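BUG-245 | component: ligand-complex export | severity: low

The export step for biotin jobs runs without errors, but we want the raw record kept on the ticket for reference. Input record follows.
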Amino acid sequence: IGNNLIVLDSVGSTNDYLKRLGSDGCENGTVVTTREQKSGKGRLGRVWQSKRDENLAFSILLRPKLAPKDVTPITPLAGLAVCKALRKTTGLDCRIKWPNDIIIGKKKLVGILTEMCAEFDAVEYVITGIGVNVDQIEFPEEIAYKATSILLETGRHYDKNRLLAALLGQIEREFTRYNLELPPEALEEYVSLCATIGRSVTFKKGERTVSGAAVGVTAAGELRVMLSDGTVRTLNAGEVTVQGI
Ligand code: BTN
């Protein structure tokens, strides 16, 4: 990962830029990073703030030989790798907020957005975009209560190139070790760092809002939720709201 590394000064979104390169046939493991994104994208159509030099923004393109339904472990594995790498390099007590945010306490430090291009039921490429809040000292009012940065948490400036190298190294190790799957050892690691497990979550069942306790994660990266009658449901990211974090 990162043998082909493209460094930009400014771009709309590294995910979109890499999508174009992907369609033009760029190699597996290509990485795009930038000093600034003009229209950074978050999950669920949200905006991701990426002002010049404040945020480490990068995207990785993979060409896995997988069916579309089998790419789901890529995001939790990337989250696990980023969490471990940041704990190692900064000493911060980062945790994973299922499915793929990295948080410190109740505040978000990293967001991950995975997009896939598939044709005829085969994956052409998968793009995993990662945004790490590094040097922000303040955030827009609407998100200030729920966002943080490495600078705010440690009082130190971390070199973004070194951080990128550490993150890419860990992502490559995790992807290789677990072969882009979530075997039991990977799930155990994920769960041990996941702040969502043990918390109360709610989800919609028709018109009703049902609550339960997050008890684990499946090999497909879904959340296992135990309801008050003891039954366990598996839910995907679009369905669940986690309480308290
Ligand atoms: C989220 O938490 O909603 C996901 C945020 C993902 C942000 C990263 S920054 C690099 C890449 N390019 C984008 O436009 N988005 C991702």
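Assignee comment: Attached the raw record above. The helical segments are 14-23, 74-90, 141-144, 150-154, 160-178, 184-192.
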